[in-house]
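User: Hi! I'm working on a homework problem where we have to compare a predicted structure to a textbook description. Could you give me the structure for the chain below?
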Amino acid sequence: MGLAAEYGLASLRAVTTPDNAGSRAVLARKGFTPAGEIELDGRPGLRFVRAL
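Assistant: Happy to help. Predicted structure tokens:
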């Protein structure tokens, strides 16, 4: 049994800002996909999700 199953996790979520190309690249390499827009401390942000 893996940790995701042990803890009942179905997905992981992450957020970053549109101007943070480095974070977006890491998230893409790790299998995260864009899931919409969000506001982060009054700034535009992007949501990402990765199914487990």
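For your comparison, note the following. Residues 12 and 50 are 5 Å apart (CA to CA). Helices lie at 3-7, 21-29. Good luck with the assignment!
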